[in-house]
Amino acid sequence: MTNLQCGVSSCANNSQGCCCLQSIEVGGTQASQCADTCCASFQPQNSAMQNGPSQGVPHPNCQISCAAQSCTYNAGGSCTAAQVTVRSGPGQQTECATFRQR
Predict the structure, then answer these.
(1) Are strands 78-79 and 74-75 parallel, antiparallel or unpaired?
(2) Rounded to an integer, what distance in angstroms lies between the CA atom of residue 92 and that of residue 77?
(3) Predicted TM-score of the model (pTM)
(4) What would you measure as the largest C-alpha separation in the chain, in angstroms?
(5) What is the distance between the alpha carbons of residues 20 and 75, in angstroms, rounded to a whole number?
(6) How far is C-alpha 86 from the chain's CA centre?
(7) Nearest one of 48, 47, 29 to 38, comparing CA atoms
(8) Cβ distance 49 to 15 under 8 Å?
C-alpha cells in the first residue's frame, strides 16, 4: 500500500487531505509529465455533499493502479512509490505530482 496525500479539495473522496477510497486509479497512458496524468477516481463534490457530513473515512494508505506506462513507479500497472501526492492540475481537475518519467 502507498501513503496517499490528496490536495484536491474539490473531490468528494477527499477528507482531511486523505482519500476515502481504499484504492484509486491514476490515468495517463501516454504521460511524459505530471500534467499528463490524472486521478481517474476523482468525483466532484456537489452542494449537498459540501453541506452534509462526510460520507467516508480517510484512508492514508491505499492501492494505486497506474496507467502511466512511462512512470518510474509503475510496475505492471501498480504504483510502487512509498508516497503519492495527487493535486489540482492546471488544465484539468487533478494530476499525480509524484509522476517521474523513466
Answers:
(1) antiparallel
(2) 22
(3) 0.87
(4) 43
(5) 24
(6) 4
(7) 29
(8) no
Cα gap 80→65, rounded to integer Å: 10
73: three-class secondary structure by DSSP: coil
Cβ neighbours of residue 75 under 8 Å, at least 6 residues apart?
Answer: none
Reading the block at residue 13, the C-alpha cell is 473522496
**Residue 88 backbone phi and psi in degrees, to 5:** -70, 135
Q: Are 62 and 24 in contact (CB under 8 A)?
A: yes
CA distance 24 to 42: 9
**pLDDT digit string, tens, across residues 70-101:** 999 999 999 999 999 999 987 678 999 999 99
Rounded CA gap, 96 and 98, in Å? 5
For strand 95-96 and strand 61-66, is the pairing parallel, antiparallel, or unpaired?
unpaired
